[in-house]
Amino acid sequence: MAVVNPGDALLGAPGPHGVRTLTLNRPDKANALGESLVLRLHELLDEVGAETRVLVLTGAGRHFCGGFDFAGYEQQSEGELLMRFVQINELLARLRRAPYATLAWVNGAAFGAGADIACACAFRCGTPQARFRFPGFQFGVALGTRRLAQVIGAQRAREVLSRNEELDAKRALESGLLDQVTDEPSFVSLPAELARLTGGLDAVALPALLRITDPADHDADLADLVRSVARPGLHARVARYRQAGRA
């Protein structure tokens, strides 16, 4: 089990209208999802309770999240890597099942599992510098695929995933991956506005609405992920992918 660094993610105190902010806080690593960060996010989600109506997820520094942190993956067994991906998959499931509105504030690059985190949120806003890429199938890992297809449509998801296509803010907005593109000063008031606009929904109605409108199949997502990661040769597939990225 990884040692958890509490500073890897930060949870703000509840603000007016029940707004809290959860910040991925590894700016020197593009907020990449190392073991400690993922476990810390799970810990902090455990602390979010009925006081929260809107949870904003964002990244410290210039990026939202650079995806899975492959640093030192060569020294990890395929079983250890599988567990890391499972923990991320469960994080996505928790965000999608959250009894409060989740709002991704994509303030830069959102790649791989980082893009999946943004996609798992009920609402998504980004700066003009927002960028998305979902490269998991380039090394044979199925993570967050159904959610992406639900958000942008099955055919568009096939194109984005098979081509490892990068979507800038404009194309993300056009595809439905982003609900709105705005600059940071204009974003500041949006979480409270979201809380106000949903204020007619009580503590039972809001979670019910979010659950019913998200046709999630978490068990199928987990099964697909486990099969994809358990396929022999994960280390070699990752190595080929990373080498191609440096070519």
Plain-language structure description:
- 45% of the residues lie in helices and 14% in strands.
- The protein has eleven helices and nine strands.
- The chain has helices spanning 35-47, 78-97, 113-120, 145-152, 154-163, 169-175, 184-187, 190-197, 205-212, 218-230, 234-246; strands spanning 9-11, 19-24, 54-59, 101-106, 109-111, 123-126, 131-133, 167-168, 180-181.
- The strands form two sheets. The chain has a six-stranded mixed beta sheet, sandwiched between helices. A three-stranded mixed beta sheet has the order 5-7-8.
- It starts with 8 loop residues before the first strand and ends with a helix.
- The model has no long low-confidence stretch (mean pLDDT 95).
